[in-house]
Amino acid sequence: MSAAAIGTGAFIASGKRRFHTLDDARRAVMPLAEHPLRTTGAWNLAQVLNHAAQSVEFSLDGFPESKPALFQATVGHLAFALFDARGAMHHALDQPIPGAPALATDAPLPAAVQRLLDAFDRFERHTGALQAHFAYGALDKPAYARAHLMHLADHWAEFRPA
Q: How many structural domains compose the chain?
């Protein structure tokens, strides 16, 4: 099953955006460069999009830091299983990925939009092994796609009309 075949449509349920496919996420992200939303959290929109892009890129290239293997196999595995069963993730929305480069506060929004779109494209084209998630451990491609979509949706909860 390809990452794009997970489902169709994006919807808002209980105030929470859900993306079923990378195409759903692309359709939501593409207009942000010209029609930005504001964020209610600690990060501006470009920082959030760059953070989401980092996560996708690290799934391909490797995370800079990881939790111990025991954590990944127990707490991390259980956390992802719970998120996956719910179809929604909840995490600290101002917490950077461990060891990731700092998110520039003055990053241009169009570049952040493009970076995330490029990361999605690269993820979809990728046919090799994926890198272990820093907290969840090994995920196959469909599970990683769901993780990326839930991650973006969790951050989307802080987006409001400009």
A: 1
Residue type, 33: A
Q: Is 0.85 topped by the overall pTM?
A: yes
DSSP character string of the chain: --GGGS---EEEETTEEEESSHHHHHHHHGGGGTSPEEESSSS-HHHHHHHHHHHHHHHHH--SS---HHHIIIIIHHHHHHHHHHT-----TTPPPTTPPPPPTT--HHHHHHHHHHHHHHHHH--SPPPPBTTTB---HHHHHHHHHHHHHHHHTTEEE-
- The length of the chain is 162
Burial of 36-68, coded b for 16+ CB within 10 Å and e otherwise, reads bbebeeebbbbbbbbbbbbbbbbbbeebeebbe
114 close to 68: Cβ distance less than 8 angstroms: no
Domain extent for 81: 3-161
> pLDDT tens for residues 79-101?
999 999 999 999 999 999 999 99
